[in-house]
Amino acid sequence: MIKAGIIGYGKMGRIRAEALKQSGRAEVTEVYDVHANASDVTFVASAEQLIQSNDIDAVFVCTPNHLICPLIISSLNARKHVFAEKPPGLNAEEVRSIRAVEVASGRVLMYGFNHRHHESIKRMKEIVDSGELGRILWMRGRYGKEVDESFFKGWRADPKLAGGGIMLDQGIHMLDLMLHLGGGFDEVHAVVSNLFWKIEGIEDNVFAILKSNESGICASLHSTMTQWRYLFSLEVFLEKGSLIINGLKTSSNAYGEEKLSIKRNASDGHFTSEEHNVFHVDTSWNSEIEHFLGCVETGSEVMYGSSTDALKLMQLMDRIYEASA
Prior knowledge:
single chain, five-stranded parallel β-sheet, alpha/beta
């Protein structure tokens, strides 16, 4: 049984605790949060006390963005395995510093990019990798939500604590999926705006155009918090058809049903009828935790959410912000 400690017991910390409980392979033995407001866990006095505890095998970092890097480094130095929420750091430089400590520690480090574990994404990735629809030509991703003033209460309204706005908060998931499906990108063009909320350093919209010089794949991404509705849409167009995901299964159901549409080109150049797959259950949180626990137990390589993935992602994130400056 793996003994886990959680730093940050807000929404994400509680989600991770429940997934650990359901796994049957781990138990949460200690928790640290500035607000010790739950009776179902044992709270300790500080994050450092938890990290240094002999009763902890793995530390879950579920904190505001600016704390992620130092807490990961402290945990790895204490010879603990680490699962950390996104973003992997505030920028690529932070991820590089983490990677150096990770290598020296010999411990497992995994980042929480649960979108890769949604059933629609797993099926999409399977079809892309099979080659049955040929190579990817282009992708288009839209991910957005509506927020009000309450969204900016606390750390999310402070660029020193948040590190950025909607792109670092939500758009990072879409960018990660594009890297997951299509590989890296070389050319980056972007526009960033905070036309509505007007908070310096906290963008409310990002429009990015990406291209890979090696594969020729082009991609467009729009991340927004001024859409006034919840929307997730990822479209992948290939030589022999298309794969389109609309909606994302979440606990709130705000993004609607999660549906993957598969369209295969007919030999005469016309499209055949579409195949629609609807996924009614969100298994992403449990799937992600199972992957992490398996890596801890067996010492196997992290396949989804590794520091290698994280560095590639944050390098591209940095370039998007720089291109819009």
